[in-house]
Amino acid sequence: MDKFRYFIEKQAFGVCTFLGEKMNISASSIRLYFIYTSFLTLGSPVIIYLVMAFWMR
Question: DSSP code of 36?
């Protein structure tokens, strides 16, 4: 089950997983950061997330 979860995280949430691996932070806490700051700043972290997603591919 963990292999399946990691595969889904890598494919669907690759940005958060990549950042988590590089900074030694769990990917779920990075996702929560993006969600909370998106609500507080009216979506500007979403733009950063999309730029990073295109940069990683």
Answer: H
